[in-house]
Design goal:
Helix content: 40-55%
Radius of gyration: 23 Å
Structural class: alpha/beta
Strand order of the largest sheet: 2-3-4-5-6-7
Number of helices: 18
Largest sheet: 6 strands, parallel
Length: about 500
């Protein structure tokens, strides 16, 4: 039996303090406000919680009426992963587009403008940037969320993003430690495994995290990945060797360690969220992210009680839980006092996202290219299954922007082995714009393009994922991401509007 040195109510408050739960709705439910009053220090927001900037500002004000230094977190990477603009598509290109431009000043400016928009809505912790080196081209969950496959490029842009975001008073949470780029499995569904030597991992995957720490990243998010060369038993989120040994002691990180979503299958289907949360805090994590799928009071109480019970049984050190809670409160204090004056500083302009998207385009004109389109085309969108991080709520493609520039533009979505033939049939005699996303990862998509180009070599191809395939079509545009501004930039080239 362990001897508790502090009152039970203090222990319970600490257990609540280390949780970052979500909820359902566009206003805070009573149970959430009650838990904030009892010690909950963080709340996570998702697309379901956001209808407009005005509504979001009212929501965060409602939370701060209960606790003025509450951490309000969001998964706003820009690009494909957006919560602020979940129903329209992002005004900012994602990491891969910024890496393609390779101008750290631009990356800093984009992150600063994104940070200003978050701060204006009352959000002060962003679960971004993704510092993963996309070394596996078949990666199903990172892809365009990464700045690229070159560790040094990823490192310098990760640092620039952290600096830009935090200049607006919004804490960066650099993810997914120790690096999710060399995986072929999505940790939303299973436990990915990275089987490289420690030397490779340190030179490749850890480089961007070193840069983020040097740039002052206030938080780091762990990944639910197994790295046997560092810990053969536990995934990183639950590994003391990785969180404490590598991140704290080797890399010298002293900020907040946040877990990735604990309801993801890599944890929930193997350890369960209660035991997983206990193991994570014991390993060195300070905050438990939960709420993407489990977003209710029962989840909060289950995790609170699991942590309190683990301290009482001696499985979890009381001091470790207290240290984690102290780090959460320290970040809450930083967000409440830092960057407030800077939020009104000079901005690069609200069009910075479109400027970046235009610069990120790679345009290849084939021999059959004649001139920009002047008549409404048919847009054939070859649509893969969206990964959970991106979601299927956010529109993507070029049809909406082409319709604005060329009224009468029509579109269809096609998937599977007959996609090319179906698209040809529906297009009729109209010019075709084929839109793909990671064509190199989907054999059916590559086959559909071949079918289109064999019959219609004048087809325009827009690749909105990682452009690994050889450019084809009369005009090939690689946007390096599927944000709304990426589609607009591509439509401008297609129509000659630039």
């Amino acid at each position: 039996m362990t001897t508790l040195t502090r009152p039970t109510d203090t222990l319970t408050r600490d257990a609540l303090t280390v949780l970052q739960p979500g909820f359902v709705g566009t206003s805070a439910p009573d149970w959430l406000l009650r838990r904030i009053g009892e010690g909950l220090a963080s709340v996570g927001l998702f697309g379901r919680n956001i209808a407009s900037p005005e509504q979001l500002a009212a929501l965060t004000a409602q939370l701060r009426a209960e606790r003025d230094d509450v951490l309000v977190a969001i998964d706003e990477e820009g690009g494909d992963v957006t919560r602020l603009e979940v129903r329209s598509g992002s005004s900012f290109p994602g990491n891969h587009a910024l890496g393609a431009v390779d101008d750290t000043g631009l990356t800093r400016d984009v992150a600063a403008e994104l940070g200003r928009r978050l701060a204006a809505c009352g959000v002060n912790l962003n679960w971004a940037p993704s510092a993963d080196v996309n070394s596996n081209p078949d990666n199903p969950v990172i892809g365009v969320r990464s700045f690229g496959s070159d560790p040094l490029l990823v490192a310098r842009h990760t640092a620039a993003y952290v600096e830009g975001l935090q200049s607006a008073g919004v804490a960066a949470c650099t993810k997914h430690f120790p690096g999710h780029g060399d995986t072929a499995v999505d940790s939303h569904h299973d436990v990915p495994r990275i089987g490289v030597d420690p030397e490779v991992l340190r030179a490749r995957d850890l480089a961007p995290f070193r840069a983020a720490i040097a740039a002052g990243s206030r938080a780091v998010m762990s990944a639910h990945i197994l790295v046997p060369s560092l810990d053969a038993e536990y995934p990183a989120t639950l590994s003391r060797r990785i969180l404490t040994g590598v991140l704290r002691e080797e890399l010298g990180f002293d900020g907040l360690i946040v877990t990735d979503g604990m309801e993801m299958q890599a944890i929930s289907a193997t350890y369960g969220i209660e035991r997983g949360s206990v193991l994570a805090i014991a390993a060195g994590a300070d905050a438990i992210c939960v709420g993407g799928g489990l977003a209710d009071d029962d989840t909060v109480l289950r995790l609170r009680d699991a942590l309190v019970g683990a301290v009482r049984s001696g499985e979890l050190s009381e001091e470790r839980l207290a240290d984690a809670a102290t780090r959460v409160r320290a970040l809450a204090h930083w967000t409440s006092v830092s960057g407030v004056a800077e939020r009104s500083g000079g901005a690069p302009g609200t069009e910075i996202g479109l400027v970046a998207a235009r610069r990120a385009l790679t345009v290849t004109r084939g021999e059959s290219y004649a001139a920009p389109l002047t008549e409404a085309p048919f847009v054939a969108a070859f649509t893969p299954m969206a990964n959970i991080a991106v979601g299927d709520e956010t529109p993507w493609g070029v049809a909406a922007e082409l319709r604005r520039l060329l009224p009468g533009t029509e579109t269809g979505s096609f998937t599977g082995p007959d996609a090319g033939a179906l698209a040809l049939n529906e297009a009729g005699e109209r010019s075709i714009v084929a839109v793909v996303r990671d064509a190199h990862r989907h054999p059916w998509m590559a086959e559909a393009l071949d079918t289109l180009l064999s019959a219609r070599p004048d087809t325009i191809v827009v690749e909105m994922g990682v452009p690994k395939s050889t450019p084809t079509g009369s005009l090939h545009i690689a946007t390096h991401g599927a944000a709304r501004v990426c589609g607009l930039a591509a439509a401008e080239v297609i129509t000659g509007a630039t």
